[in-house]
TrEMBL record:
Disulfide bonds join 359-377, 543-558. The keyword Disulfide bond applies. Belongs to the peptidase M2 family. This is Angiotensin-converting enzyme. The lineage of its organism: Eukaryota, Metazoa, Ecdysozoa, Arthropoda, Chelicerata. InterPro entries: Peptidase_M2. Keywords: Carboxypeptidase, Disulfide bond, Glycoprotein, Hydrolase, Metal-binding, Metalloprotease, Protease, Signal, Zinc. Its EC number is 3.4.-.-.
Amino acid sequence: MAALPGSSASSPPPARLVAAVLLAALLQAAATDNYDSYLATLKNVSALISNEDMGVSFIEDLEVPYTTMEHVDSSSQWDYATNITEYNENNTNKVSNEKAKLEREFGLTAKRFDWQNFKNESLKRLFRHVATIGLAALPDDKLENATSLSSKMATIYGSTKVTVGKEKDLSLEPDLVRMMKEVGDYDKLREVWLAWHNAVGPAVKEYFIPYVTLANEGASLDGYANLKDAWLSDYETANMTEIVDKLWEEVSPLYKKLHAFVRMKLREIYPGRLPADGTIPAHLLGNMWAQDWSSLYTRLSEEKAPLDITKTIQEQKWNASRMFHAAEDFFASIGLEKMTPTFWEKSIITKPDDRDFQCHASAWDMHDGDDFRIKMCTDPSMEELRTVHHEMGHVEYYMLYKHQHVLNRQGANEGFHEAVGDLIGLSVATKTHYEKLGLMKPTDKYNPTDILLMSALTKIAFLPFGYILDKWRWTIFTGETPFEKMNEKFWEYRIKYQGVSPPVKRNESFFDGGAKYHVALHVPYLRYFVSYMLQFQFHEHLCTTTNKIDGTHPFHECDIYGEKNAGEILRNGLSLGRSKPWPEVLEIMAGTNQMSASSLKKYFGPLEKWLDEQIKNEKVGWDDANVQDYMGSPSFANKVDLSAGTVLASVMVVVFCRAYGSL
């Protein structure tokens, strides 16, 4: 047999074949090893820009265009909110969409940097802010759909008018709000409550469901598991929900005592009309959402002639201008800023007669030098005087951090912004300050507990509502609560935590949470609960620092008016904006880096002792209440004319922007 070309006749073919096969196998193994190495190497290669100097340049270059974008958007929304027309609505939507697209471009550019591994912590914070773009993460068609859905919900909330009895074309503000404050007529209050909730909730629900679906998608594209996580990211605290739950556990015993006292008094006003399970019907507490019970004060006070600051304000003919100048005087007295000439020129503090106007009080940073504004339909009362201080507190914050980079011109967290004006309100609600304002005389007899009760009906009564509104929405965002069970979950939480029940049975054809401004306009609400903790922490620190608390001057009587040292502490904290983590700012303003309810409990300590005596024969709580007892077809023949509650398109539209509003 002839040998193959190139082969040796002396080598048996089988041996050479085996060698060749073995060599090929070895070469293949080596190649496989190399490819694994190649892939491993590529996985360690980053396409992100790691040069921090380039990152600094990007952030610096962002200042002017980002500020311009914010100014244009704020101006557009101001025009819309203060002159509500179909033309302004359509054009504001166009501006909002273009702004979102710009935010997307800024955010996507930021994401090209390896900013999470930067060494400069301040730079990392700025990148985190610009890289979080929310709804702007959506594709253009979905973004425009989300904007349209949001606008429709706002229109429903703002344009709905209802009929109550023989009164027609009633709007929420001021008509229904005033009617809910009237105490005594159980059936009329129920009719007012049903008129609003039945007209607004179901209409909002139609758009709320697809909007949440899109918002969740945007949150996912932005790197969050869901919208709940996106909302909570503002607090930069991994265990924020646990912190909030703990705060609620600290204050809930005091709330339950106040609830028991108010329930006891309401039984006297409405004999035989309150449920046996211990809950209070939502329409009896003086507020459409049962979040502020201050309208009940004169009927709850044990005094024969209870303090009535609102009556005095009206008798003295206070107007909006006087209320705003009184608030400005307080801030100036502690060394903070006076309102700018532009503020007085461009703010609108009474409801115009010549056009449709959104009355929900809000403060605005126009991102243009000294242009800061408040929009409010001021109605002289004690409650409105508090609101004026609240909104002006936002403006003080705007002015004090205006030197910061545009991305840091926000509160240390959302709760800080809401707390500033309310902090000042704690000083206003004292006998000494009422005397300064001429609303009390030094010779006036008063019960200090009465002033505390007045405050508690606003502050303590609000806490469960502030706690549950987002807690409820989070369950929707995460999918824990299906869209088909939203109303049941809403009332489950209101009954469980607030001890408040619906006036009649409800079902899933209603969407009672949607009858609240912040739900219809998709505004996070946890900020208000947080602010109620912070304001008392700030107040105690300022009162202690200025030696306003001692054996003869209790915490709840502290008035920091005129205390420049207190103003300096506030200036040092507020001027930081959100350039530092909020615990560091809290350390400056409260002397601790931990949120706590201890200051709030200390403030209301004397009232709690008084409540203990008042309710010694009352059962505290509502353990027997069950949401299923309130779900089903309403047994009450609702005579509300729902046709009057349909949307009057483009008549009056609510706008939510980056302005901070009242709760």
